[in-house]
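Figure-free illustration: sequence to structure, shown twice.
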Amino acid sequence: MKKSCENNLKEFNLDYFPGRESGFILYKKEMNLLDKDRANNFNILRSSIESTIKKLFGDKFLQKAKNDEILPEETISANLRLANYFYGKKLTKLILEEKIEELLNLSEQNLQKFMTNEKRTIARILELIGVHILVIRPEIYHFSGAIEKFLSTRGFGLIDSFDHQLNFQEYWALYSEHLIEKEPFNDFPTRTLVYLASKCKILIFKRDRGDLDISHLKGERGSVVLGTLRGDIVTKESLYLLNSGLLSREDIFFTLDPINSYRYIIGGEIKSDNIHKKYDFPFLFYAITGIHMPDYGEAEKNLCVLLDSRQLKETIYKILVNNDNRVKKFIQDFDAISLVGSGECEVYAITKGKQKTFLKIKRVDSCANFKAEAFALKSLGALGAKVSRVIKQSDIFIITSENLGGCLNDRPYLFLKKTIYEDLSKDLERFYRTKLNGFGAIKNARGEHEDWIDFFDDIKPWAKTIKSRSLADVESVEILEKYWRKNSPSLRGVKKSHFVHGDFCLDHIFAFKELYSGIIDFSDAFAGDPLMDLAYFKLKEITKPYGPKTFSLLKDSYEKFLTIGQNKTKLINLYMIYWAFRRVAESNDVDIAKTFAKKLERLAKNLETIV
């Protein structure tokens, strides 16, 4: 056995296995059924690497490599030749000359070949609903079943798995940043050779949205981190390969480090940044990464690179349909999918012929309640309201039918069209016909509070936040606080609970051919006094020149079934204070907070004489 192999034997001890030798024997007993697959996978990988080295360097060099007789200067030269072979002479020259800007431009051009609009849209949706992608690299391909089992025991559902041999363009798109690292040719061409030599296994899997960032499961390569993929599953399997005697160490070293790059770096014969020194198993840090799993926020790119349009469509179809025939007829073989709205939720239109279906997905920090939305749509729809039909609903997304037309906010010429508000009044009356138990956020078909006044517990904290952070004029906030203290006892008089839309504005009132066609977006719906919607509408339009007239038309539509006297006017003012404080204090968008701060100040000016 040659020197470079001997220098690396000492790091592959069995301390990692519980009970050392006894732990190793137990692992071997549990896993020996895979020995045939292990040997077969390494033979295929080794054969492919041998073929490439023979093609590039000839038989003599190949034998020296297999016998561990390559000198450090030969390794450096071979890595440069591998770079020219895989990356091309132009890219290699730019890397050598450190032309970073040109490299970044070329890398972006290569990436964009995979990032078509349709692919990006579908990949974005998949990432939003908690889909992850994992690549099991060639050196650990035989261990795919164990990795799938690891994910399954942690609550991940496997959506799809398939074999795929990466080409250089895909590899470049995934790892372009490594091409501009300091001294990239010391080891990266070797990584490229092994990675592209044989097939990988790609896993598409999903877990609840609470686990969008699952980087903690990845672990560190070349380290012991129990309960992780790299630091536990891959490390343990790597040590087994090197200690089981199933394959000779010479064969393993050649297959994983065919031109001796890693061993010379670890031994100090080739210059490096010495990053490997901080890891438990320096050779494994370079040679057996085992898996590629993008961090949160990177899945969209990886899905576009590794899946074609057909595979992406099939993936989203499997998740959304999930053997539900009601959904199948709406999204099977869809023609197009496009983003049509964005805020706390992202809304996508799925088009098939003349039929449109809408998919709404909540963002991670969103408070949207799709259970409440589905409950509201079904309840109001049963009463004849012009609302969308619920096709499918989960905690993460909701699929609904199309509401004909478009929102009033995009059609200023309809703002003051009286017949629209008259027709709207019929649906607003249906809000009052739905009787609910409790107040506030709807859980299991009832509000979370017994009394309506308890819904407003955040008023004081919001006012304090606005003043302490100077989010709005302090004097205006104090005027509204004074009005609240004086008039909030009247909230105790509200005893009946009904649906509240929660975001009632011109954006969510639809018209088709200049006629009212429905109300959309009930993801903020809750149980309470429907006058909350009238108050929010008034606040939204309070700074607009047409605001008083549109509010007057809406108020008239309410008064077709409800008398709005002095007491209800007082309630509307209180509700406007609630919405103003909430929108300014809670908004994560600075511009939105500033817009509502102006509305808050206008409201204070309007109420100042009353106070």
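We now fold a second protein in the same way, so the two outputs can be compared directly.
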Amino acid sequence: MDGDRVELALTTEPAPPAGAGSAAGQPELPPGRYFDREESWLRFNQRVLELAEDDSLPLLERVRFLSIFASNLDEFFMVRVAGRMRRMATGLPVEGVTGLPPEQILSNTLTTAQELSLRHAECFNRAVLPALAAEGIEILRWKELSAPEQEDLHRLFRERIYPVLTPLLVDPAHPFPYISGLSLSLAVMIADPRTSTTMFARVKVPPLLPRFLTVAQRRFVPLEDVIAAHLTELFAGLEILEQHAFRVTRTRDLEVDEDVTENLMQSLERELQRRRFEPAVRLEVEESISGDVLDKLVTELGIDRRAVYHLPGPLDLSGLNVLADLDLRKLKYPAFVPSESVLPQDTDIFTVLGKQDMLVHHPYDSFTTTVERLIVEAAADPRVLAIKQTLYRTSDTSPIVDALIDAAEAGKQVVVVVELKARFDERANISWARKLEEAGCHVVYGIVGLKTHCKMALVVREEPDGSLRRYCHIGTGNYHPTTARIYEDFGLLTADRTVGEDATDLFNHLTGYSRQSSYRRFLVAPGALRAGLLERIDQQAARQAAGQPARIRFKCNALIDEAVIDALYRAALAGVPTDLWVRGICALRPGVPGLSEIIRVRSVLGRFLEHSRIYAFGDGNEPGSGVWIGSADLMHRNLDRRVESLVQVSDPVQQAELRGLIDTAMDEGVASWWLAADGTWTRHHREADGTPLRDLQQHLIQNLRSRGGDG
């Protein structure tokens, strides 16, 4: 983007789309004030790639960032690009508030994704691969292996690989085979010496075998290389003319019409089978591929030529996580053990929460000894009468699921609101939802037409005096013990009566379809959450206009909702200092003269995935001040098509901690990426003399001891 684009944003034509226009009596906002969300997402993945390119990071962590970049891009094509292509092909409306034609957005997206894919491959082949070799870790091609190593792989091929391979020939009697999404394949051209006929064949690389085979200690070879070296055994008596690796990406987004579906679980199972046959949206090929073979693939797959990416092998670097998991501590981040001192371990959790609210910050505070402990102790406590919980994602062997089953088997009332449509976790969620049902838990699948994304647990306990008391956890992240070690999230553990009443009302809304719409310390979507945030943004603008102190601080994963963005623009025009910490997509343009000079946008990426959502208004001592945490990002899907909740944090010390975290991230002495008015993200991680800036996450790790003491 160039300066002309920013100037365009300053014209004073009518504001764009519905829901994004200025409110009555408010200043008219210019068009061109939103970044394209696809472009913004790709720039987020570029920031991940920049971490892989950073030679100051531990080597195996760089390998992991390469794997994450590849997996991220796969999901982007399966969901965003596939959805856009499908809508354009069927003539359905394509969302877009930038004013650019849908075809141009698609073209820009495919071009940028290709540029980043090439940069990703170059980083691996020219920087990371040599660095790995210097540490004695080698990824070799077949010709680079020694004769004894090749002989060992000959035996491995015959014993473990050959039996599961299925070569598929294409001829008049055998049509072109279906190529499943994300499958790696070999395109093989063969000739029959007897007839001089040339034919095309496809060999699928088995996905259940290791992506990189271990040849010797810390020596690996791509699986497709081993298969390619043995093609003569698959096509005995035929001549192998050429062979090339390729990989196809297809859509993975589920389409289930809940309005006409009575059994959501069965419908999802059928859809999981059907979506294997969606159209191809990306074709990755080795750069050595011949024109004839490529033409054959493009024609048979019916793929847009702009979505054909020529890359140096090996393809599918998402499999690099195998190397990143090598047990070589010197090539990884220093070992980290979460604090277990935020909650006293010698007192039951109900006694602790009966005295004060507890704010826990994962992964710095242990998930096991806080959130998981609440559910496990509740399941074992004879005074607990009921446990209610939302589950969006969890692990296959979750202690929380086991505790809920134990509670149900002990006669407690257990209600679990399961989101079957958690993207890419549908199959796992169906599995343990059945497990919960079989144990006697009441399993509810949420509200028709809405995903249940709120993170909430409610424990009802009879106290020694005979009264009932409610204990709650309201969080920003999933009840997933594995990701809790690498995702940054907050959770509020409380026995506050008002929070308990709100949680009870919301669970009744989820399980009984009550028409509850007003809450006390909750903001709930869809319905009140967007309106609640807009009201508080406008309050800060009004305070600033009246000469009173005002401030806005947000931390979220994505900011693309036009109504919220416009409210922030209007607050900025009123002079409200606004700091936005956005990990991923941001459609708001900061620093535009006459519109958003006073808005700063930062992004922090690193060892942990920044995942928490914090919405803070004011500084804590004035009317209209408040801090909310919860599950909702500022996206249409969160505010309109999901059940989300934010809870107001009432304790002044905890409010100060949350505001202080955002202030630290925005500090110019802390490493982060800065978003400019033209859409570029610039990494600020070193002083002018090359001295590294402070790493926020490492700073929080170092402060664990003092945090535990304060708790």
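Summary for the second example: The domain at 140-330 is CATH 3.30.1840.10 (polyphosphate kinase like).
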